[in-house]
């Protein structure tokens, strides 16, 4: 019997809350679902990016010729493909060629282009723009998750203060201090704090872990860009 009462206590506290208290609890539950949706979706997305990056580095990490970038282009996936594509389009622009024609030419004749410093800078700038775009995609909804971390405890506090205030107001109306009269109302009020913490704590942990993963992925993108530019500088630079 004791176990049944213990398990039912959160529901009892919810039942003892007034309309505003119940609405706050339901709001916090909705926010929690939103937070977990963001965390899971973003975690799966970042896991996919990390897998794509590692797989590509296994193929081209030891390459010292730009030709391999074109050779393995179809195997590149995710953000690295978009970053590489921007670089290729910049190369086509410096050579005043159509993109598809450039790809076909390199596949047939090999990589024979030579670049001036300004052209290298243009290619580098284009790829860095691609890096910024991909970082922005990774950070999408992260700000919302951060807001959930910050706001949910205050929403819970609002419910607690409101519930306690109404409990003591009811006691004042009755004109006597009766713990049995105010205890149910106070338990309903404190429920909002408990729910708020159950929202905020996992959200904070998820936010920190996702931020760290995004930072690592961003460094991989930047490192990849620098490697590509170094290949172009070493192998093909005009005097």
Structure notes:
- The protein is built from eight helices and no strands.
- The radius of gyration is 29 Å and the shape is rod-shaped.
- It is mainly alpha-helical.
- The chain folds into two domains: 18-43 and 142-217; 52-140 and 220-233, no CATH class.
- The longest helix has 57 residues, at 179-235.
- Helix 2 (19-60) runs antiparallel to helix 7 (142-174), helix 4 runs antiparallel to helix 6 (117-139) and helix 7 packs antiparallel against helix 8 (179-235).
- Mean pLDDT is 80; it is low at 1-7.
- Helix content is 85%, strand content 0%.
- It has helices at residues 2-16, 19-60, 67-71, 78-94, 99-109, 117-139, 142-174, 179-235.
Provide the low-confidence segments as ranges: 1-7
E-strand count: 0
Helix content: over 70%
Largest sheet: none
Number of helices: 8
Alpha-carbon distance between the two ends: 88 Å
Strand content bin: under 5%
What's the shape?
rod-shaped
Assembly context of the chains = single chain
Number of domains: 2
What structural class do you assign from the helix and strand content? mainly alpha
Tell me the series of helices and strands, N- to C-terminal. Answer: HHHHHHHH
How big is the Rg?
A: 29 Å
Mean pLDDT, to the nearest integer, reads: 80
Keywords:
2 domains; mainly alpha; rod-shaped; disordered N terminus; 239 residues
Which secondary structure elements does this structure contain, and how are they paired or packed?
Layout: H1 2-16, H2 19-60, H3 67-71, H4 78-94, H5 99-109, H6 117-139, H7 142-174, H8 179-235
Helix pairs in contact: 1-8, 2-7, 2-8, 4-6, 6-8, 7-8
């Amino acid at each position: 019997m004791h176990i049944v009462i213990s398990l039912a206590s959160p529901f009892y506290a919810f039942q003892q809350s007034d309309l505003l208290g119940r609405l706050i609890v339901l709001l916090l539950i909705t926010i929690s679902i939103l937070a977990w949706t963001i965390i899971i979706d973003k975690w799966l997305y970042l896991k996919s990016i990390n897998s794509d990056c590692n797989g590509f580095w296994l193929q081209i990490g030891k390459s010292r010729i730009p030709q391999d970038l074109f050779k393995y282009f179809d195997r590149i996936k995710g953000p690295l493909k978009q970053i590489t594509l921007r670089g290729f389009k910049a190369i086509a622009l410096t050579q005043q060629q159509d993109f598809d024609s450039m790809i076909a030419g390199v596949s047939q004749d090999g990589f024979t282009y030579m670049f001036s410093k300004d052209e290298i800078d243009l290619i580098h700038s284009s790829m860095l723009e691609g890096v910024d775009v991909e970082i922005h995609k990774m950070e999408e909804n992260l700000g919302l998750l951060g807001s959930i971390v910050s706001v949910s405890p205050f929403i819970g506090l609002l419910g607690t203060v409101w519930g306690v205030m109404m409990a003591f107001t009811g006691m004042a109306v009755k004109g006597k201090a009766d713990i049995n009269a105010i205890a149910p109302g106070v338990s309903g009020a404190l429920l909002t704090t408990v729910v708020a913490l159950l929202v905020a704590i996992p959200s904070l942990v998820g936010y920190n872990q996702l931020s760290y993963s995004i930072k690592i992925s961003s460094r991989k993108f930047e490192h990849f860009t620098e490697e590509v530019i170094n290949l172009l500088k070493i192998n093909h630079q005009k005097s």
